[in-house]
Amino acid sequence: SQTIHQWPATLVQPVGSPLSLECTVEGTSNPNLYWYRQAAGRGLQLLFYSVGIGQISSEVPQNLSASRPQDRQFILSSKKLLLSDSGFYLCAWGRSLNPRQYFGPGTRLTVT
Amino acid sequence: GNSVTQMEGPVTLSEEAFLTINCTYTATGYPSLFWYVQYPGEGLQLLLKATKADDKGSNKGFEATYRKETTSFHLEKGSVQVSDSAVYFCALFAQGGSEKLVFGKGMKLTVNP
Questions:
Q1: HEC string of A11-47?
Q2: Residue B50 burial class via C-beta count within 10 angstroms: exposed 0-12, middle 13-18, buried 19 and up
Q3: Confidence category of residue B10, pLDDT binned at 50, 70, 90
Q4: Portion 26-65 of B in contact with A at CB < 8 A
Q5: Residues of A in contact with B42 (CB under 8 A)
Q6: Best residue in A30, A34, A44 for a mutation probing chain B (most B CBs within 10 Å)
């Protein structure tokens, strides 16, 4: 069966520090991968998605970036965090032409 | 473009009350429609789905019917439980478009005993 992992589960970082969140999927190959952010009162916002290694589509211009160095690994990064980057970050995977997505447990990021 | 509009809440109900969460959509063609649920501190889980007009999705006592004439996919449950306390998201997937779901803003439901 397929599983999706995210780490860390929680993170507290000062403003201006770098960020690296990791997401890995097991039990499947060539998945579509997604990063979402859930900020208080703002619902679920798609940040990036990838349909293959090295292929990243950005939905929202901001100081975050994403990379997919391996087929089942998706990384969300920032060089300098802002207070507004606080939120709950969710990774998800899916299949091309199949609308269902499977979500990871999330990372709670607090920027202080 | 494609979009989903849903009740945002928050909503507080007593146990055994009837629940309706409204969801309407705008999309070209014939999208698939979904309800996802997020329990406290967790990621999202698929609750139910419908892929064509007049389909009814159901799971855990929840139901939603794909109404093309009103572009709606309202979620209902006849008798809510404390364990239904969660955030509920309506979403659509438009065939032939990019490989992504379009979500509503979510509605937080709290059920009190």
A1: EEECCCCCEEEEEEEECCCCCEEEEEEECCCCCEEEE
A2: buried
A3: very high
A4: 32, 34, 36, 41-46, 49
A5: 105-106
A6: A44
* pLDDT band at residue A44 under the 50/70/90 scheme: confident
Q: Is the pLDDT of residue A24 over 80?
A: yes
Question: Of B16-25, B51-60, B66-75, B93-102, where does mean pLDDT reach its minimum?
Answer: B93-102
- Please answer yes or no on whether A90 and B104 come within 8 Å at the CB atom: no
Check if A51 contacts B (Cβ < 8 Å): yes
Whether A72 shows a pLDDT value over 80: the answer reads yes
Please state the rounded mean pLDDT for residues A74-94.
94
Other C-beta atoms closer than 10 Å to the C-beta of B82 total 11
Question: What's the CA dihedral at A76, B104, B34, A23 to 10 degrees?
Answer: 10
Question: What type of residue is B1?
Answer: G
In the stretch 5-34 of chain A, residues with CB closer than 8 A to chain B read 32, 34
Query: Is the pLDDT assigned to residue B95 strictly greater than 90?
Result: no
